[in-house]
Amino acid sequence: MRIENFFEIRQDTLTLPQQQYQLSPVINLPLQDTIPVISTVTLPARTAFLGETRQVVYPSSITLFIICGLALLTVIKYNFGKNMIEVVQSFFNYRQTMRVFEERRESDKQAVFLSNVLFILITGIFVSIALPFFGASLLWENFAISILIFSAATGLLYILKACIWHGLGNIFMVQAFSKIYIYNMFLYNCNIGWLIFPLVAIIPYVPYEVAPYLIYSVIVAVVISYILKLLRIFQIIHGLNVSVFYFILYLCTLELLPLFLFIKCCKML
Prior knowledge:
Strand content: under 5%
Number of helices: 10
Helix content: over 70%
Number of domains: 1
Shape: globular
Order of helices and strands: HHHHHHHHHH
């Protein structure tokens, strides 16, 4: 076989018939039927209990409130240093609490009053500092107004609690228990204010990574103090032979209800 014929045969065997492909007609479908559309959803910020916080820039006006708290603490320490020691001891010792209540010196009353003013101020500062970390909005988006409003609300809440418990004591003929409870309530506020003031005062000035730990520390300290206060109320009831019914009434009306209202307000913010 000649070489030319060989290549002709190989070419004939390798050549395939060309198929005629017809293009299918183009169908114009809506975009949502062909490509899945991913919608953008703005999710609310997680709460701090889920481990997510936000970076917050604090204005210089917050320093003025911290300086006022520091000045008030200095006045209390300088004029009522001995009374502060007795109040701190009463935080852990029930007998010390009853002794301070029975004496009720004028200097003790002044120290307790100023310390409760400090507690109210520190509470307003801490709530205003902590809410932005949890994704909540401040009142009128202003730290100064928010601190004043939360401080005023805290003061009115404790005045209202004292008035209600005084009225319940007169109605149920347990005036001794109501007086001791009111005095212990303000004593615990003094200790809480002194305890959390250093932590609250440095939160705006520490690095962002450290601030959440300080906020958690303040919350833990307040919760522990709250539990100790409930135990103290139970000690008073047991010491005065008062019915446990009053403790349940106190717990439901003057502690749990305001706590639920506060949580509801924070969720609304």
